[in-house]
Structures are given as C-alpha cells and as structure tokens.
TrEMBL record:
Pfam families: HTH_3. This is XRE family transcriptional regulator. Residues 7-52 form the HTH cro/C1-type domain. It comes from Pseudomonas parafulva. Gene3D superfamilies: lambda repressor-like DNA-binding domains. GO terms for molecular function: DNA binding. InterPro entries: Cro/C1-type_HTH (IPR001387), Lambda_DNA-bd_dom_sf (IPR010982).
C-alpha cells in the first residue's frame, strides 16, 4: 500500500473527513488533499505531527513500515 493510501486509511479508520483530520493536526486542508492524492510528498514535520499525535500514534509503525506490533499497541487501520 502506498503512503497516500495509508494516510487515507488512517483518516477513515478514525471516522474523520479531510477537514476534521486537518483541524486535529493543524494542517492546511489543500496541502493535505495533495498528500492524499499523491501530488506532493509529506515532509518530516507533517509526518511527525501524525506520528506523535495521541490519536494516531497507534498507527506509526504501520504507516512507516507496513508492519504491526499489537502487543506494543501498534496496529493497522485496515
């Protein structure tokens, strides 16, 4: 699964619209749409916002590697 698809999977698993996801993380909605569409690559600061946010931290390992570690609290949204 490519990175834009992973972002979308996380957002949908949390039941968020693009606007809501952006509000939670403080992202520009237009920029986030480009991340999800694969038009631009997400930068390290934005990636860290997702990875360090308490609501999305559980997906960090999967987002970065595609792996999960349920015993460590790292799960897949799909």
């Amino acid at each position: 699964m490519d990175f834009p698809t992973k972002l979308k999977a996380i957002r949908k698993a949390e039941g968020l619209t693009q606007r809501e996801f952006c509000e939670v993380l403080g992202f520009s909605e237009s920029t986030f749409r480009k991340y999800e569409a694969g038009i631009i690559e997400i930068g390290a600061p934005a990636l860290l916002k997702i990875a360090n946010h308490p609501r999305f931290k559980k997906y960090t390992l999967w987002l970065m590697t595609g792996d999960t570690a349920p015993d460590g609290g790292q799960v897949s949204p799909v």
